[in-house]
Amino acid sequence: FVGTSGRVFPKSLKASPLLRAWLRRLASLGVELRPRHRFLGWSNAGAARFATPDGETEIEARATVLAFGGASWPRLGSDGSWAAILENSGVSIAPLKQANCGFDISWSAVLLEKFAGAPLKNVLLTHAGRQARGEAVITRHGIEGGAVYALAATLRDEILRNGEATLQVDLRPNVDADRLAHRLAAPRRGQSTSTFLRKAAGLAPVAIALLREAGPLPQDQAALASRIKGLPLRLTGVRPIERAISTAGGVQFDELDDDLMLKRLPGVFAAGEMIDWEADRKSTRLNSSHIT
């Protein structure tokens, strides 16, 4: 079924039925799976070398497709060790680094105790002139989620350059600042600050807690509306690469021909996350057949 995000999901919301169906289809096509084979590179004669439970073996092939992924799932085998193998064969590799990742923020103990794991729904995030709308999640280490991942490349690069980055959060993107300030000018009638912000500004408890993280709340309604519309979050680090959903870097495009074959290794092709591109920056270099 197609979800609200436009992504396609199995009806069971589990990967195992999809995997079983995929394996059945591969078997019907004559595909032979050889588990517990670790790629070691190529012999002097050009055969692919593998470490297996029965010792090292070599396989000669007319065509070889490398689809090793990035380096963000080491427990499942995607540890990026292929990069050194290709570099030893003369292939230029851009350093592997986090993509679609979370970021570190030094939250207060109060916020962590009450809101670690809480979602921020329908927010607008801004960084370096780029915006992403959607959801984010407060974590014990900082922040992550779909809207954060959309800006991860520029956030990551700034943190690597400067040691930190500022992410602006619009907690009420559907309400402009003037209208919000007008709502905040309403009499409080004995309501607590949290209750007033919940009713007048439509803020969830986690959003109110984030406003307090930035310091004492402004008493002026225009200044308070400005904070709600542009809450600054100071990101102090990038989550480790093994915690990222995917990685950037990899085989540089100059090493590939139009069919994604490695120019230095005729008959050897690279696929997917092994190639050095991030969708927001370099997807235009792939034609539709490559994306398919």
Percent helix range = 25-40%
Main β-sheet: number of strands, strand sense, barrel status? Answer: 7 strands, antiparallel
Strand order of the largest sheet: 11-10-7-8-9-6-12
- The portion of residues forming beta strands comes to 15-25%
Write down the overall geometry. Answer: elongated
Task: Describe what you observe in this structure.
The chain is of the alpha+beta class and 292 residues long. Helices cover 29% and strands 24% of the residues. The chain has helices at residues 16-28, 82-88, 109-115, 146-150, 152-162, 177-184, 193-200, 205-213, 221-229, 279-282, 288-291; strands spanning 38-42, 48-52, 55-59, 64-66, 93-99, 103-104, 119-127, 130-138, 142-144, 165-170, 231-235, 237-238, 246-251, 268-270. The strands form four sheets. A seven-stranded antiparallel sheet has the order 11-10-7-8-9-6-12. It has a three-stranded antiparallel sheet with strand order 1-2-3. A two-stranded parallel sheet has the order 4-14. The radius of gyration is 24 Å and the shape is elongated. The chain starts with 15 loop residues before the first helix and ends with a helix. Mean pLDDT is 92; it is low at 281-292.
How would you briefly describe this protein structure?
By secondary structure, the protein is an alpha+beta fold. Helices cover 29% and strands 24% of the residues. The chain starts with 15 loop residues before the first helix and ends with a helix.
